[in-house]
Write a structure and sequence with these properties.
The structure is a homodimer.
Chain A lengths: L5 E5 L3 H11 L4 E6 L2 H11 L3 E4 L2 E2 L2 E2 H10 L5 E6 L4 H10 L3 E4 L4 H12 L4 E2 L1 H9 L19 H11 L4 H8 L3 H15 L4 H10 L4
Parallel strand pairs in A: 1-2, 1-3, 3-6, 6-7, 7-8
Antiparallel strand pairs in A: 4-5
Helix pairs in contact in A: 2-3, 3-4, 7-9, 7-10, 8-9
Chain A binds a DNA duplex (30 and 30 nucleotides) through helix 7 and helix 9.
DNA sequence: GGTCGGCTCAGGGTTGGCCCTGAGCGGCAT
DNA sequence: ATGCCGCTCAGGGCCAACCCTGAGCCGACC
């Protein structure tokens, strides 16, 4: 057991942490604990564990906040959500944030140890019921967004053309809509694709929808 | 080994089936095989296996078609997709249809046996790389739906072409992907647009996304 | 056996997307 | 004033998208 999996526990209840530690401590190397978001990010970024056992509900934020914080710190690790909650939205939220697994605290300790090992090796793991949630959740989701970095590469006119292009307008329609010539539209379109390093309007449509620009 | 997991193999290559059977036969109970969609549905609905090992690409349809067929027959079982493909869309498609796992044929036999056991117990299982696909897909997907009204206007092949078209594949890519000529793709594409009374692929993309077909 | 529908392919055509080059015009800054 | 930049346009070229027609193969149905 020389190279055990290094684990950090994040849970706001000390009782839970010590319980988990005593259940899995013989099989993994618990290198740190935390009871809130700030502390979790700090411990994780200093200890650099293989796996983080992460409670979904925390003071000062929640599970996703921890994951985001660690990501922003440039640290790569695997998160396994460990929660009393089996509410679909908690599961989805933490998976979206980047957790690679989700088990409830009802899990047997041997199973938890196995789950940690699997997550550490890059696998995904879910409690049976939760697997259903996650997979079924492919039945209806729309996510995130933020600001626009490379959008500034485009001039005002180019952005205007870009939006209409992404929306599926033909060059001719677009030209009459902006009351410019088709040739001008082509020029702008070409510039847009070049600046965004895209090769055709389908990619542009995906690019724009990903960024909620249309 | 009295109550082994009962498994049905679905793959269009006899060689693959016998190979898999010899690799896992000592650990699970292979109660049936099939090499196309129809046969698969029949074997599964009569044998009622615990787990179906399902190839994604089949004559007469594909993996999702088998899952749908079995569901419509009112039979509950667990599907584990076993494919050479690790294309994200294949993974997503079969997961959407209801598969509880997806592994590639590069898997070691011991791992496959373990995967079958986990799926049988209701767990979800993915090859490490594919776990990434599935979970990352939460970062930008729009899925499923219910039934299809005018979708029945399209033949099976046309639906296949339609999905890829709507997804933005060029005719040439689509042709090599389906291993048919570009001319055949054109013919199908033309039929699709005519039958759906659409005039180009942008409208098709919108049509398909509205109906959550892609 | 004949018919019909689905899948496959071909020839030959028009239109549109996309690129490159080149160029005139107006604002704005060094 | 000279030059950069954004907006406008044109010519000319390539290729992909889309259409129509026609045709061979095969399995299903009558």
């Amino acid at each position: 057991m020389t190279d055990q999996v290094r684990v950090v526990l994040v849970d706001d209840h000390a009782l839970v942490r010590s319980g988990v530690r005593s259940e899995i401590g013989h099989a993994v190397d618990v290198v740190g604990e935390a009871d809130d978001v700030e502390g979790a990010v700090e411990v994780i970024t200093t200890q650099l564990p293989d796996v983080v056992l992460l409670d979904v509900h925390l003071p000062g934020g929640n599970g996703p906040a921890v994951i985001d914080g660690v990501r922003k710190a440039g640290v790569e690790t695997c998160f396994l959500a460990l929660s009393v909650s089996d509410a679909a939205e908690d599961v989805i939220a933490v998976i979206r944030a980047g957790a690679r697994g989700y088990v409830t605290k009802a899990i047997a300790s041997a199973d938890l140890i196995a789950a940690i090992g699997r997550v550490a090796s890059g696998d995904a793991v879910f409690s049976p019921r939760l697997a259903g949630f996650v997979l079924d959740a492919f039945a209806g989701e729309i996510p995130t967004s933020d600001v626009d970095p490379e959008l500034d590469l485009l001039t005002a006119r180019e952005q205007e053309v870009m939006r209409l292009l992404a929306r599926g307008y033909a060059y001719k329609e677009l030209a009459s809509r902006l009351t410019i010539s088709v040739k001008t539209v082509e020029t702008h379109a070409s510039s847009v694709l070049r600046k965004l390093q895209l090769s055709n309007r389908h990619q542009l449509t995906r690019w724009a929808t990903d960024r909620r620009l249309i």
